[in-house]
Design a protein that fits this description.
Blueprint lengths: L2 H28 L6 H20 L5 H15 L12 H21 L1 H7 L4 H11 L7
Helix pairs in contact: 1-2, 2-3, 3-4, 4-5, 4-6
Length: 139
């Protein structure tokens, strides 16, 4: 791998992190009761630690661990479904895929597994659980 590719990957990760922080900052300003700025800044690293810890947990089903390893590989890969240089939606595919995989993990392993391995604060976990929860239809 050339140094240009490494720099490109690092720049892409930093840009994704900055975009996530900007969106979380915007959300935190509009909803101060749900998330603090400290929680928003810690969400992405905590999420990556959660995925790594769940993937290493032998008590979690093998299929779930395989999904988590594939998710980590996808997130680290420079190839995306929607290229990251497209404003806003370039990183939205990553967020959607993370939410879908976490929803699958939540269905198979249960919320206890996520709670057991979550390294962050309770408000951060609440955001992750809300993002991974199935959509409830109004009747």
């Amino acid at each position: 791998m050339s140094w240009e590719a490494v720099v490109g990957i690092l720049a892409g990760l930093l840009l994704a992190y900055a975009l996530l922080l900007l969106l979380l900052w915007w959300y935190a300003r509009r909803h101060p009761e749900t998330v603090t700025m400290k929680d928003a800044l810690r969400l992405l690293p905590d999420l990556l630690r959660l995925i790594r810890r769940l993937a290493a947990d032998r008590t979690v089903a093998v299929g779930v661990r395989v999904r988590l390893v594939l998710l980590l590989a996808y997130l680290l890969s420079p190839i995306d479904l929607v290229p990251d240089f497209i404003p806003v939606i370039g990183y939205a595919d990553d967020a959607v895929i993370v939410a879908l995989v976490l929803r699958s993990v939540l269905n198979r392993a249960g919320p206890g597994a996520l709670e057991r391995h979550w390294p962050g604060s309770q408000p951060g976990l609440d955001i992750i659980l809300k993002a991974a929860a199935p959509v409830r239809r109004r009747t």
